[in-house]
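Exercise (ungraded).
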Amino acid sequence: MSGRRRTLEALSFELVMTVIALIALIIIIAPSLVVLIVSFTSGFSLRFPPPGYSLRWYVELWNAWQLHFAAKNSLIVALWATGLSVVLGVAAALAISRSRTLSTRLLDSLFMSPLVLPALAFGLAALMLFSLVGLPVSPLTLVIGHTVVCVPYVVRNTVAALAQLEPTLLESSAVLGASRLYTFRRIVLPLIRPGIIAGAFIAFMSSFDNVPVSLFLRDAATDMLPIRMWQDLEGKLDVTIAALSGVLIMATVALVAVMERVTGLSRRLTN
Amino acid sequence: MGAAPASRDVTSYGMGLAAPLALFFLLFFVAPLLQLFWLSLHNDTAGLHWGLGQYLHFLTDPFSLGVLGSTLLLGAEVTAVCLVLGFPIAWLYQRVGPKLQTIIILIVLLPLLTSVVVRTFAWIVILGRQGIINAALQSLGIIDTPLKLLYTQFGVVIALAQVQMPLMTLPLITALGRIDSNLDDASCSLGAGSWRTFFRIVLPLSLPGVIAGCTLTYAAAITAFITQSLVGGGQMLFMPMYLYQQASTLQNWPFAAAISIIFLLAVLAVVSVFTTLGRLSRGHGGA
């Protein structure tokens, strides 16, 4: 009797958990699917389901030069910010990864703090400082601001990759007469490369998508894609934005698939 | 070979390698925040007269306090929704094979890497007057006129919960993966039911993950400017938009600086409460 009750009880638990999990997964995935479907509409509104299907809004997107211009700016800034983040972040990760002193822990907290502090407040602060020292907003200030908010991803992923590294490998290499630089190039770098690439990828995506920092640090001539999209959406619900969203979703899926192959991204983010 | 510098540790690198990034942060992160703080301590927009006027203005103004309160409340609501929905995902993850595990992770990961504007736009399509929910309810004959879902607190909470869900789910998956599954079996064979085992064993042991997830979700939800403004519309004002309006439209930099500092302190307070809870929970788990 009690055994039967227990299995019913276990069943109710499993059922409730599984149902909530499935609902949650649907809530996570549904918005992207909806946008993809709506972007192929033949109508003029964002009605769902669409009255018919066509590629007209993708054709429209092809001619939307304002969006092209903004996308190009975002891409250039994201590439520079990612490059700078990798150079600065990997060096810092090497320094702080194996040390547990108070100063390294403080440095670690400092480097991670842009992840939790409101980026909009930082954007405003950076604008104030730049205007105080007479540095006008430009693509350069954008790259600097983006690097501050993107470098934590590189540091975190590189530190995690270094933590997995067997110290005996470095010792063996040294005992066998390899210089530190040679050991770094031939042993350390190949082993931590997937971690660096994963961090750089996340840094790139977050720079490309950044609004709060760009909002303050761009000049009038430098239109950034997410800001352009945001302002378009504030004004009118344009179906061209749905087509652009469709392109961005498909590009993200493709990039994530490549990254999963190259770096094992999914395992990396749950360990 | 005897001359080898044996004392030198070959497994670690000098702190000097951290210097470039430390300098970069000092110049472009710490200095701006200090300058922000300095400006917030001035009563006039030119920054000539010292005083706490900006803070007094904020703290005695019911409107400003209301914005702060609704922002903090929004964060709590989003975090709660993410926890209730995210925990079962992490639980399911531990129960399926490696193939399905990868699929679950990728589903969870995808929104994290998809543009926030795109994700928010999707919710406008879903919650709008002609959106899926209204279309479905109308075709089922449940409602005659479309419900107002966009520009409501409900809309903002559900959209933000979806946008921030990965930040909650990933630490939970990590935390649940570290729990010894024998504990689960032991609890069940000692007569505790599944629900009891979950609330008495699994949930307490996963607290570090819960707290890490809550910290990230909360901090992200209250600063999620784009989602707040697009799904919330003009009627609802939260701290980031308030800050932006004061700084950009009204050019009131000292007040915007004070708003930023108060907002920063609020975020820091919440994060440190969570961190303290995390430390306590780890102490509890070890005892």
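Further reading is listed at the end of the chapter. For now, observe: Chain A has a mean pLDDT of 89. Chain A touches chain B through 102 residues (CB under 8 Å).
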